[in-house]
Design brief:
globular, single chain, 2 domains, 2,3-Dihydroxybiphenyl 1,2-Dioxygenase, domain 1, about 140 residues, four-stranded mixed β-sheet
């Protein structure tokens, strides 16, 4: 069985978050989505569970960080081309995200970063596969 990754993120407004990520082209698995959580499909084995604060609090006794003022995680997603990075970044901005920091372009690698509606930082990146040396 393949290993899956589930990134659990607290969100203040689940419907707004679903609309935001839907505008970026992500889909949701209805089997694991209800009024407290949405299972966002990022890739075949990568998911983000968008959880209301009440639902998220069921899994931790720690205070939920305000990602607008604190850094809790940087979520990096790769894309197949520079153009795909720019396209996803532009969709995010159009859907209400803010630029998290200026983009980087090293020719062999580039990235753009945005903060989603709850302040979580998503770094979208591309790296030229011919640059990666075999180990």
């Amino acid at each position: 069985m393949a290993t899956n990754i589930f990134v659990n993120l607290p969100v203040r407004n689940l419907d707004a978050s679903k609309a935001f990520f839907g505008a970026l082209g992500f889909t949701f698995n209805a089997q694991f989505t209800d009024e407290t959580a949405a299972a966002m499909v990022i890739d075949e084995n990568i998911f983000s569970m968008l959880l209301t604060h009440e639902k998220f609090a069921q899994f931790t006794s720690k205070t939920i960080a305000d990602a607008h003022t604190s850094s809790e995680v940087l979520i990096a997603l790769s894309r197949d081309s520079k153009e795909a990075v720019i396209a996803l970044f532009d969709k995010a901005i159009a859907a209400g995200a803010t630029e998290a920091r200026p983009g980087d372009d090293y020719r062999f690698m580039m990235s753009r970063a945005f903060s989603d509606l709850d302040g979580h930082i998503w770094e979208i990146m591309w790296m030229d596969p011919s640059f990666v040396q075999p180990s």
